[in-house]
């Protein structure tokens, strides 16, 4: 998951100083008033609203506990966490990305197996816990309690489709290009790209699209082979997918300034653009702006009708292994598994990761139906299950493929070069 607002670099030092002064080791004893410190990198997104409301509700249940939610800058969040772990001056709980990010930082996290009652863990979607555990096996115990269930997903304007004569949602490359042609003729920007909604840098974040390109190229059972190198990034299947992706701009499906546009969310919210690839953290913004005109669709980056969707618990909260308030921290994590907590998450416009709960946002429910009713295969977020160094390289070079600045082969060669430089412990035939 990658959807946090960047803060100015000058704020980072101040935030670190503030957080360290109120961190796990300085806030009182278990018998008296306790301050529980949580670090997050949610910025102003819906996740931030959910976390703050969870904190307020928890304080209402535990009168001797104050929960201090400290926002940290997204661009160096993990560096701050690592530095704080060395000095043991960091938070009691911290937002943690799942997948390989969890395992990369597990040295300062607590494995929750045996710490949180099994009955509480059982309330969480088992597919969510899987991706927070060693070897991606939930029986090994999770390091993260998921905040929500997330989708990388497409959004479209039903009114724009109707006006343009697009009678059905595209399901493959061919139907997508055909829909783009009709939408453009009707006066719409078919598909908007830019760094709005994902402002981690000056360009848009390409791993939403890359996830769907790899869904179109490989079954979920083969994705581990991207991690191991058994499927090279330069494979013919991968190059073919990126070649079709590049045609989105060259065929007029996108805006010309895909690398630098900053108001692409506004394009979609105002009805200028007919489609956008984004995530559940912005669903509520779109339904507030467009009402019943907005709906979800699976980005059809496939040569045949697409059969998979990114359905993944991308982040949650972890307990540091140096906290001096483990009892209260565990109580907070346990609270996150309850129905009242799920209602708070839902009220923020997100999808609870708790079994048996529902989402009141109809577009979020539509996403859940892709799996439960349409029987699409649930895939993880690709950027959470391939090596972070590879993700970083892709973030730099993949946007230029869509822009037409570099070839698919060149960009994928950069990914392959980065992969080849990894230690063998980071590219085995099984996950760590």
The class by helix and strand makeup works out as alpha/beta
CATH topology of the largest domain: D-Maltodextrin-Binding Protein, domain 2
- The pLDDT mean sits at 91
Portion in strands: 5-15%
Keywords:
single chain, D-Maltodextrin-Binding Protein, domain 2, 42% helix, 2 domains, five-stranded mixed beta sheet, 432 residues, alpha/beta
Helix/strand layout:
Elements: H1 9-21, E1 34-40, H2 46-61, E2 65-71, H3 77-87, E3 93-97, H4 100-104, H5 118-121, H6 126-130, E4 145-146, E5 150-157, H7 158-164, H8 173-185, E6 189-192, H9 207-217, H10 224-228, H11 236-250, H12 264-269, E7 273-279, H13 283-290, E8 294-297, E9 308-312, E10 315-319, H14 326-335, H15 339-347, H16 362-372, E11 377-379, H17 382-385, H18 388-403, H19 408-420
Parallel strand pairs: 1-2, 1-3, 6-7, 9-11
Antiparallel strand pairs: 3-10, 4-10, 5-7, 5-8, 5-9
Helix pairs in contact: 2-15, 7-8, 9-11, 18-19
Quick rundown:
Helix content is 42%, strand content 13%.
Question: How would you characterize the overall build of this protein?
Answer:
The chain has helices spanning 9-21, 46-61, 77-87, 100-104, 118-121, 126-130, 158-164, 173-185, 207-217, 224-228, 236-250, 264-269, 283-290, 326-335, 339-347, 362-372, 382-385, 388-403, 408-420; strands at 34-40, 65-71, 93-97, 145-146, 150-157, 189-192, 273-279, 294-297, 308-312, 315-319, 377-379. By secondary structure, the protein is α/β, with parallel strands linked by helices. It folds into 2 domains: 9-149 and 313-355, Periplasmic binding protein-like II (D-Maltodextrin-Binding Protein, domain 2), CATH 3.40.190; 151-311 and 379-426, D-Maltodextrin-Binding Protein, domain 2, CATH 3.40.190. The strands form 2 sheets. Strands 5, 6, 7, 8, 9 and 11 form a 6-stranded mixed sheet that branches. A 5-stranded mixed sheet has the order 2-1-3-10-4, sandwiched between helices. Strand 1, helix 2 (46-61) and strand 2 (65-71) form a beta-alpha-beta unit. The model is unreliable at 2-30 (pLDDT under 50).
């Amino acid at each position: 998951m990658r959807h946090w607002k960047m803060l100015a670099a000058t704020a980072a030092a101040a935030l670190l100083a503030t957080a360290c002064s109120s961190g796990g080791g300085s806030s009182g004893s278990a018998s008296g008033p306790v301050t529980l410190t949580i670090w997050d990198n949610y910025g102003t997104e819906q996740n931030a609203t959910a976390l703050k409301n969870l904190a307020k509700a928890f304080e209402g249940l535990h009168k001797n506990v104050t929960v201090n939610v400290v926002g940290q800058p997204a661009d160096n969040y993990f560096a701050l966490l690592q530095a704080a772990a060395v000095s043991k001056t960091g938070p009691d709980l911290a937002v943690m990305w799942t997948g390989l990010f969890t395992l990369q930082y597990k040295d300062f996290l607590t494995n929750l197996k045996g710490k949180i009652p099994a009955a509480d863990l059982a309330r969480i979607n088992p597919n969510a816990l899987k991706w927070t555990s060693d070897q991606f096996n939930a029986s090994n115990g999770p390091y993260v309690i998921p905040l929500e269930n997330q989708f990388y997903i497409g959004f479209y304007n039903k009114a724009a489709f109707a006006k343009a004569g697009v009678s059905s949602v595209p399901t493959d490359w061919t139907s997508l290009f055909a829909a783009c042609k009709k939408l453009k003729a009707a006066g719409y920007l078919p598909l908007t790209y830019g760094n709005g909604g994902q402002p981690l840098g000056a360009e848009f974040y390409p791993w939403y699209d890359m996830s769907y390109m790899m869904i179109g190229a490989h079954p979920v059972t083969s994705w581990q082979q991207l991690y191991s190198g058994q499927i090279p990034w330069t494979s013919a299947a991968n190059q073919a997918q990126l070649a079709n992706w590049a045609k989105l701009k060259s065929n007029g499906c996108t805006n010309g300034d895909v690398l630098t546009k900053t108001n692409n969310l506004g394009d979609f919210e105002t009805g200028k653009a007919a489609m956008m690839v984004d995530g559940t953290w912005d669903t509520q913004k779109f339904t507030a702006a467009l009402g019943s005109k907005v709906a979800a669709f699976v980005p059809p980056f496939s040569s045949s009708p697409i059969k998979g969707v990114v359905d993944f618990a991308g982040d949650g909260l972890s307990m540091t292994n140096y906290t001096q308030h483990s009892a209260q921290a565990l109580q907070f994590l346990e609270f996150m598994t309850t129905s009242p907590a799920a209602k708070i998450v839902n009220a923020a416009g997100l999808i609870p990761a708790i079994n048996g709960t529902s989402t009141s946002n109809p577009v979020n429910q539509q996403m859940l139906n892709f799996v439960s009713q349409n029987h699409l295969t649930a895939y993880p977020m690709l950027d959470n299950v391939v090596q972070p160094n590879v993700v970083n390289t892709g973030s730099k070079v993949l946007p230029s493929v869509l822009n037409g600045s570099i070839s698919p082969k060149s960009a994928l060669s950069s990914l392959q070069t980065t992969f080849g430089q990894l230690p063998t412990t980071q590219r085995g035939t099984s996950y760590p």
